[in-house]
């Protein structure tokens, strides 16, 4: 296999506790000898679980997974609020816990559906070019506007007096720390996030992810075998195939005719060469029968 291609793809990484997403990406990039790398949505150091990491050519398509729905298993601690909304912050308030399981389930259902959230100060959202957590660390609180999110599913997995473990399926931009705080507020005792594990991102699942220890113990060749193809990031997009001549024009950045394939659908498409099923990149149809190049794979020159 050409070395160029061996560095491109998606690694499903099971991020351990205490490691930042940025550091995890650096470690994976070094172990796979990749020239470019990026993750598809941060996990806090206190969170564990699925972190898809894009390497090489796959980094061109990271943005599509940033918009994907996600699923989490979260443990909520009731009766205590903290400065960060999770167990790593300083305690702000302590209140007695006196609700029952029926009240808890009702509070969970109140947060299911299309709702709004106020992003936490301890987040990577930026204000005047700086992430909010930098202001928060200096004791500065800035006004944040509520943002629409969708929580598609909340299941109660376990409940024991002052702790509950829930399963959440949600849209991009959802802060589980904020969800924990909001549920605690409804129950009248406050709450913070005690533990968090991400179990799904788009069509990727934690059960298919590799740990850092497992990755380190593999030989170089076997590490490369852990990579999923770059187009797995966009498998939700419809597919178009081009004949070799048209595919070459498309690869060179030219708009091409696909009047027999589009079915009058406008939008983004995965594009392949029909004879080899080689993934070429993403094309956009903005008018009937015309495919415009958007993000294209780069192929090595063969002498």
Quick synopsis:
With 303 residues, the chain is an alpha+beta fold.
Description of the structure:
This protein is α+β, with helices and mostly antiparallel strands and 303 residues long. It folds into 3 domains: 3-67 and 203-232, Pseudouridine synthase (2-Layer Sandwich), CATH 3.30.2350; 70-201, Pseudouridine synthase (2-Layer Sandwich); 237-296, PUA domain (Archaeosine Trna-guanine Transglycosylase, Chain: A, domain 4, Roll), CATH 2.30.130. Helix content is 22%, strand content 36%. It has helices at residues 3-6, 21-31, 62-66, 101-110, 132-137, 176-187, 212-216, 220-224, 244-251; strands spanning 9-15, 37-39, 47-55, 70-78, 80-82, 91-94, 113-117, 126-127, 130-131, 147-160, 163-170, 191-201, 204-205, 239-242, 256-257, 267-273, 278-287, 290-296. The strands form 4 sheets. Strands 1, 2, 3, 4, 7, 10, 11, 12 and 13 form a 9-stranded mixed beta sheet that branches. A 5-stranded mixed beta sheet has the order 14-16-17-18-15. Strand 8 and strand 9 (130-131) form a beta hairpin.
């Amino acid at each position: 296999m050409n070395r160029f291609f061996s560095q491109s793809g998606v690694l499903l990484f099971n991020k351990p506790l205490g490691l930042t997403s940025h550091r995890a990406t650096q470690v994976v990039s070094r172990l796979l000898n990749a020239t470019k790398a990026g993750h598809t949505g941060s996990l806090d150091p206190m969170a564990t679980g699925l972190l898809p990491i894009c390497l090489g050519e796959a980094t061109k398509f990271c943005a599509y997974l940033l918009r994907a729905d996600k699923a989490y298993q979260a443990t909520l601690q009731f009766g205590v609020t903290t400065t960060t909304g999770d167990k790593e912050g300083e305690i702000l308030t302590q209140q007695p816990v006196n609700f029952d399981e029926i009240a808890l389930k009702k509070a969970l259902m109140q947060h299911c559906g299309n709702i709004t959230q106020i992003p936490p100060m301890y987040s990577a959202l930026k204000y005047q070019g700086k992430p909010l957590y930098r202001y928060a660390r200096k004791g500065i609180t800035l006004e944040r506007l509520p943002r629409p999110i969708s929580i598609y599913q909340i299941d109660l997995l376990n409940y024991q007096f002052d702790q509950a473990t829930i399963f959440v399926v949600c849209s991009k931009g959802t802060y589980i720390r904020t969800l924990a705080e909001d549920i605690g507020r409804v129950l009248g005792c406050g709450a913070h996030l005690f533990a968090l594990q991400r179990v799904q991102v788009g069509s990727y699942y934690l059960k298919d992810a590799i740990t850092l220890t497992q990755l380190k113990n593999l030989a170089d060749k076997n590490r490369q075998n852990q990579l999923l193809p770059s187009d797995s990031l966009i498998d939700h997009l419809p597919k178009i195939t081009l004949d070799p001549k048209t595919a070459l024009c498309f690869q060179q950045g030219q708009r091409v005719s696909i009047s027999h394939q589009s079915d009058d659908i406008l939008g983004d498409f995965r594009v392949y060469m029909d004879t080899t099923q080689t993934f070429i990149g993403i094309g956009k149809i903005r008018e009937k029968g015309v495919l415009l190049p958007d993000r294209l794979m780069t192929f090595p020159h063969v002498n």
